Amino acid sequence: MGTNTPNNEKPPTAAKSYTPLFETNRRSTQSQLLNKLFAATVFLGICSIWFYRFTHPNPTTHRWVWVGALFAELWFGLYWVLTQAGRWDPVFRSTHKDRLAAAHPDKTLPGVDVFVCTADHTIEPPILVVNTVLSLVAYDYPPDKLAVYLSDDGASEFTLYAMLEAARFAGSWVGFCRRFDVEPRSPEAYFAAAAGEKSEGGGGGWEEELVAVKKQYEEMKDRIESATQLGRIPEDALLQHKEAFSHWDGNNKYSWRRDHPTILHILIDGRNPPPADGVNGSSLHLPTLVYLAREKRPQYHHNFKAGAMNALIRVSSKISNAPILLNLDCDMYSNDPSTLRDALCFFMDERKNHDVAFLQLPQMFDNVTKNDIYGSSLLVISRVEFPGLDSFGGPMYIGSGCFHRRDVLCGRDFDPNGSKLDWTNYGRDHEHTVEQLEREAKPLADIASDHNTLWGTEMGLKYGCPVEDVITGLSIQCKGWKSMYFDPKREAFLGKAPTTLPQTLVQHKRWSEGDFQIVLSRFSPAWYASGRISIGLQMMYLCYCLWAPNCLAVLYYSIIPSLYLLKGIPLFPQISSPWVLPFAYAVAAKYLYSLAEFLCSGGTILGWWNEQRTWLYKRTCSYLFAFVDTILKTMGLGESGFVITAKVADEDVARRYDKEIMEFGVSSPMFNILATIAMLNLFSLIGVVAKCLVAKDGVGVRVVFDEMGLQLLLCGALVLINWPLYQAVFFRKDKGRMPGSVTATALVSALVVCTSFVFLY
Ligand SMILES: O=c1ccn([C@@H]2O[C@H](COP(=O)(O)OP(=O)(O)O[C@H]3O[C@H](CO)[C@@H](O)[C@H](O)[C@H]3O)[C@@H](O)[C@H]2O)c(=O)[nH]1
Ligand SMILES: [Mn+2]
């Protein structure tokens, strides 16, 4: 069982005055024991299934059918064993911010650099980015110690324009936030929550100021949105920021994104408070705010987000050089102004901080509907599995919402006798002017500072993998560093989950493809990580990294048994045979447990059902494509990209999303597969029911049920879970229904497969 006691304690003298800054709690011994007993019974069931399959080859079918079932059941069983690591000994952390404040007055707090990444102003609208940035600028933290950097991989003048506007509005917004201690500090989210609400104890003119600041915000939003819509920056802004916008003069709109120099602007210099004539007569000290678009040239690979992050690490080392970094996606606004202080409780705890390389917080979303129709809230991962990982050495780095130690991310090796963070090595340059800083930092974002250097291999985020975050975190943990997981009561960050099925499937294709590449990479959790990280952690890495090959077993189970049902050949034990028991028990226990877990994590019953559907769709589509693409890539054919998830949808789509109606809409090869499998199961079920009805005296029903009860249940469950898909194919008229071409292809292919299977095979 894992413990959290570090192996190099402080000498006894210091131990006396030690007050922990964070707490670690585990579940009670009884509940853990009960959980393990239960898992043991499920495992027994799984072993019995394997035994049954080994000892009961079916003589009436081809050998491969039996081998396929054996393979699938071995896979499901072993995979289930892997998932148990995440449930073995979960730990839950809580912080003592009061103690942090007592031990470290604001003056002595370390600097924090926040990195926000955006890449495309059409699917990541500038106003969304602005809201995220403003929520970060408004953190409850000493302004001279906080710097917010935006990396714009789209090099969009509209994003820069939005940032200039944000910098101007920041004074009023941050002033308002500080005076009335508001939460959350993303203007859009705050105004939505405050609508119709009365001031609670805020008093002191809250309502009047709210009206004023809201008006200012709406005007800014208007300017930003109309600039983007018209495709033109307003004249006054062009005049005022002539130099800033000069980069875009006469450029070729089509090649620009992939071919431009570095653009760097320090929009707010937060080193010192401004002279005392700011908002409301008082000088308002704001944190540093920086816009960066790193250099891009078509002949050099830019390495997606990893490249952007590494440029940010280098540039920030010149401008603010904070020892602690926070990484966020552009849609993840801060929902809690005190999160930085929470995080510091982990990095500044005197005894336990020496080996913590990064601190991951859960990714939560503010646009998930009540029953989470695409299973995108990652509830069980956030509430069950990551606390489980935390006891084995810490969770993975999953991108947004992660705090890093700068030295470790820059490649520092772990030394068990002294890996403490030396805060004195960091801090700001107070001698140079803003212009000088810009001039000196700029080349650090050029290709020359990145290409053919250690960046992307030994330093910073790793290149070449679509999940740069996971592989980077793993490589850090393999050096001996730990990570920690912190799931605060009030969500720290809220982002945008995908709102259509195609988006969800494409996102999961990227994730599972990246994860599978890691298994085949130098840092494979299967080989390289052995002995470097704990076995529990290794198992969980494998659990996520083997998502893609899952497709094989799931495809087998969702196609073959149904076809054999239609043909009338049983593949599972008869209902009257005792061998049914292990199947029934293992499946029922697994699913009831998963339902309980889901409900305890804050989900709904329908939400769980929806997640099972998404589970099936991801495994039969996303993972299949990821699997095939990864294999092709390892053979040197093709290259993996990074399809960015859209953070907006048109009104029509958004309305259906709010009503929890599944969105198909476009024709995609993924849908061909989904729909074909769904049709195939429907035909099989209809076929077998028809057969029963035709047979006389109800003999048919009894025989079919006894001989093929499990197959019938499996097929029935598949039909039931596909219900929204049948609706989209047969009944719906809206634009989100299944496109006619997909429907036609699916119907024909399913019909051909079913008939040829029954009559020819
Ligand atoms: O060339 C690129 C591509 C993407 N991004 C940014 O990367 C972030 C993540 O992209 P998104 O499309 O939102 O992907 P998600 O799947 O939602 O993101 C999760 O998964 C990614 C890895 O697949 C991680 O990079 C993210 O941090 C993590 O939140 C966004 O802020 C993008 O702007 C870039 O900066 N440059
Ligand atoms: Mn995202």
Report what the structure shows.
- The protein has 761 residues and is α/β, with parallel strands linked by helices.
- Helix content is 51%, strand content 8%.
- Strand 3 (112-118), helix 5 and strand 4 (146-152) form a beta-alpha-beta unit.
- Helix 2 packs antiparallel against helix 20 (580-600), helix 3 (63-85) packs across helix 19 (550-567) and helix 19 crosses helix 21.
- Residues 1-12 have low confidence and may be disordered.
- Manganese (II) ion is lined by residues 329, 331, 495, 645.
- Pfam families: Cellulose_synt.
- The active site is at 153, 469.
Q: Tally of extended strands?
A: 13
Q: Biggest sheet, strands in spatial order? A: 5-6-4-3-7-11-9-12
Query: What average pLDDT do the residues reach?
Result: 93
Percentage of residues in strands: 5-15%
Rounded Rg? 28 Å
GO cellular component, one term: endomembrane system
Pfam families: Cellulose_synt
Subcellular location: Endomembrane system
GO biological process, one term: cell wall organization
